[in-house]
Design a protein that fits this description.
single chain, about 300 residues, alpha/beta, 6-stranded mixed beta sheet, 10 strands
């Protein structure tokens, strides 16, 4: 049978879920998501997100586009940065956070970005994921040039190709574990969201806790829900910013093993920021940032 269009309206059973979730996402300071006016109806927001996903698909899958991911050979990188710099204004003048950073990451790689506090690691991750714009330079993600897109375009690319795991989990507190995992699929208008969420929750060992709210879960369990939410869309890349930073060492070890297990199963490219050299050594490749530059 033919799958529903990605722009179909959300199912009636999940309309209350979407309404209260979109209300939460409109709060200032919630990272990683587009902001919408509070007055905008929830169904308009959801439809807008789904439509932007369709635009991204048309941009990246066009057979006539020489930069299309359909034209990418296996040897082409899934993520590439060319001479990217980031500067910000401060009371003391212009502050250079990153300077002339070049890097290339192949599909399926596991890459750790390490460096001292303030070296620019998290800034680099935000630029590579399209959450921020570089002052100079160019970035390509899965065949799409992020630096040639506006915020809506970058948001659409993120929705289609990228998963995130944050240090502080960023689960929606008013949703259960399974609803948190379903959410990206529902907002993208995908069918079978509950089944897909159940499958990935089972893989991270949390099906018995699927109806629990974040406040009822331990820190390690919340991070496993966050990982399940990141993987449920089968992203080409998963970015993790200090994913074990708020966990004890034993729980952190289990989270790292889980990331590697899911990487092996789905061949998702993993890019992690960490200050922990012991964790970084387990990744396939390490990129060290020193004073805003890639160290030799």
């Amino acid at each position: 049978s033919t799958s529903p269009s990605p722009s179909r309206p959300p199912s009636a059973t999940l309309r209350p879920l979407l309404k209260r979730t979109l209300k939460f996402w409109r709060k200032p300071g919630v990272p990683g998501w587009r902001k919408f006016p509070v007055s905008m109806p929830w169904h308009t927001v959801a439809t807008s997100i789904a439509a932007s996903n369709s635009v991204a698909s048309a941009r990246t899958d066009s057979p006539n586009d020489p930069d299309s991911d359909l034209d990418m050979s296996i040897a082409q990188p899934v993520l590439r940065a060319e001479k990217i710099s980031k500067q910000v204004s401060s009371p003391e003048g212009t502050l250079a956070i990153l300077a002339d950073v070049d890097l290339s990451i192949q599909a399926g790689e596991t890459v750790a970005i390490i460096g001292a506090s303030g070296a620019g690691k998290s800034t680099l991750l935000a630029l590579l994921a399209g959450l921020d714009e570089p002052t100079d330079g160019r970035i390509w993600l899965n065949g799409a040039e992020l630096t040639a897109l506006d915020e809506d375009g970058r948001a659409a690319i993120r929705a289609q190709h990228v998963g995130f795991v944050f240090q502080s989990f960023h689960l929606v507190p008013s949703l259960t574990a399974i609803e948190n995992v379903m959410l990206p699929l529902e907002l993208a208008g995908k069918s079978g969201a509950r089944e897909a969420a159940s499958e990935v929750l089972d893989r991270v060992g949390l099906m018995p806790r699927r109806e629990h709210y974040p406040r009822q879960l331990s820190g390690g369990e919340q991070q496993r829900v966050a990982i399940a939410r990141a993987f449920v869309t089968r992203p080409a890349l998963l970015f993790a910013d200090e994913p074990t930073g708020n966990l004890d060492s034993a729980t952190g070890e289990r989270i790292i093993e889980l990331l590697f297990e899911l990487n092996r199963a789905a061949q998702t490219t993993l890019v992690v920021v960490t200050h922990d050299n012991a964790i970084a050594q387990r990744w396939g490749r390490t990129i060290r940032i020193d004073a805003g530059k890639v160290a030799a």
